[in-house]
Description:
Blueprint: H1 13-17, H2 21-40, H3 45-56, H4 58-61, H5 75-95, H6 102-127, H7 136-161, H8 167-181, H9 203-213, H10 216-226, H11 249-275, H12 280-300, H13 305-334, H14 341-396, H15 409-412
Amino acid sequence: MEDFAESRPIPPDFVIGMGTLTFGFVVGFSMTAMPFLLSKAGVSVDQIAAVSATAMSPTFFSFLLTPIVDVGFTRRFYAFALAIATAVSLGAALYLLSPARLPLFTALLFFATLCVVLQNNAVGGWSTEFVPDERRGKVGGWQTAANLGGGAAGSMLVMSLVRSMAIQTVAILMAVLVLVSSLVLLWFPRPQMPTLKLTEIFGGTFRSVVRTSRQPNVLTGFLLFLLPAASVAATNLFAGLGKDFAAHPDRVIWATGAGAALSSAIGALLGGYLADRVDRKILYLSGGALAGLCSICLAWLPHTETVFIAGVMTYNGIAGICYAAFSALILELAGIGNPTAATQLGLFAAATNGAIVYMTWADGQGYRLFGIRGLFLVDGFAGLLASAGLLIFLRRRALKKAIEPDVPAELIEIKPA
Length: 417
């Protein structure tokens, strides 16, 4: 029988990459536009921080629910159903935005984030069914560019529209934008029917994931993602560092908004190009080492506005390379034809998000104890030392080729209970 993926036309790389646009819109809104809107509404900084932490929490624990999108119905069904749920809940959150309804707003935004994370895992799992290994780097680059660019564009659009439109009108437009962004999935090849039934949602799925996760190359992937080699956590803190560089607020907004989105998107496309030509593990760690060196340079260079802008652009460009290498690498690790690919991708995302969280905290402690120089030295040496140590580890294990692209059938075969 002809291979399923080969029997369907595969869309161009940039079309596949645009499948993450919905995720970018929602997460970008939560990270950038939401704090702006709440501050404008008179909500205090500590309350904004609480809302942000609650809204973003599904990016860490959602892997516990990801098996849902690997069983019962096709990943296309879940991708569109979850996109609709995301649009409705995000639109409702914006429509009801008010300091008096902050708990309801938080709950709706939390649900929107949970839905879009699961939706993104469904899209990723769907992509593993048809993207060949030699194109995963470029696809990963476009996915990263769509994620980061979509987040920046969506946030800037919301922040611009609220100046001249009622928040209820903006809410409806944002819901429509989320729905429209998911229509690119219509170009994806028809997905396979899942091999796991609804009754195997956790037992069968987790047995399969455990089997695939025991492979040496997959375990190595988890080690790479859990350590702070390429967490590039300082990207989450630049917006609050303008005063330490005597940078004008307008320059800070431009550099950390449009400037960061542009440089990271360029880095992502470059990283995607390289990820199809070099070992993706080496590229990921090399990007982490470069980010570490960039942080160390920022610690000792004069803290001026020019250095701030150049530093933000350079660091985010390197971050784009790291993100693209990560996207390509996890597609490679998940393999083609893996019935639990969405769950596996969710576990990889949880691992790297965990590293980002603890490194963001560590960078903050460096700032608290030693100021701006302490922040960048903690960030820089953590990334540089972890990357160097892992490169030595890989060399000592004599890994002379890229991670095996396909999951052996005997490892992922599931027998009904």
